[in-house]
């Protein structure tokens, strides 16, 4: 069933990117994936759940990319953040799904970056906290600090999404600014 799930997610991706999402019926998406309509309903339940699963799959791809960039960055929490933000925003510039989400009101995915972004935010917050704890193991010794790191990571995520939706400066500048926010917020946590 895993391959049917991926095929359905791929079909939804193609429909959104091609601009067919608004007019595509569930039966059309199932046919595009080479499965029955019932299989689609069994796997996702409805169109919103299919869109949510697609958004989460794309978030996981970005999480892998940003996590690798943060882990490979040398320096402090700001440097790790700058590397992750640069990777995310640069990849988003060329990502057909992100482009369609931001430019096509009928795709229905924009809320998964904004008002329905809790699941995606959880993915990035948890991974970011794990990266910071890997790099600064003393953070894990104090649960109150770990919770604070989670809040800082969530704040950075929200800033990235905001800049993704309305880019007001070049990627490198945005990355540097968000990194400085994280650096200042982390300063007290990593020096005590």
Automatic annotation (TrEMBL):
Span of domain HTH tetR-type: 2-62
Any Pfam family hit: TetR_C_35
InterPro entries listed in its UniProt record: AlkX_C (IPR040611), Homeodomain-like_sf (IPR009057), HTH_TetR (IPR001647)
Transcription regulation as UniProt keyword: no
Assigned keywords, A-Z: DNA-binding
Regions recorded as binding DNA: 25-44
Protein name, UniProt field: TetR family transcriptional regulator
């Amino acid at each position: 069933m895993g391959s049917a799930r991926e095929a359905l997610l791929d079909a939804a991706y193609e429909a959104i990117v091609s601009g067919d999402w608004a007019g595509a019926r569930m039966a059309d998406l199932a046919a595009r994936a080479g499965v029955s309509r019932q299989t689609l309903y069994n796997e996702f339940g409805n169109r919103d759940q299919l869109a949510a699963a697609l958004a989460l799959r794309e978030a996981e791809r970005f999480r892998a990319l940003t996590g690798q960039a943060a882990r490979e960055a040398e320096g402090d929490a700001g440097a790790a953040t700058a590397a992750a933000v640069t990777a995310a925003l640069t990849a988003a510039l060329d990502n057909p799904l992100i482009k369609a989400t931001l430019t096509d009101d009928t795709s229905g995915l924009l809320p998964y970056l904004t008002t329905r972004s809790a699941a995606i935010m959880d993915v990035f917050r948890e991974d970011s906290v794990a990266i910071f704890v890997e790099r600064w193991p003393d953070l894990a010794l104090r649960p109150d600090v770990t919770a604070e790191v989670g809040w800082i990571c969530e704040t950075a995520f929200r800033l990235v999404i905001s800049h993704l939706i309305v880019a007001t400066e070049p990627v490198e500048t945005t990355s540097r600014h968000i990194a400085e926010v994280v650096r200042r917020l982390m300063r007290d946590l990593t020096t005590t």
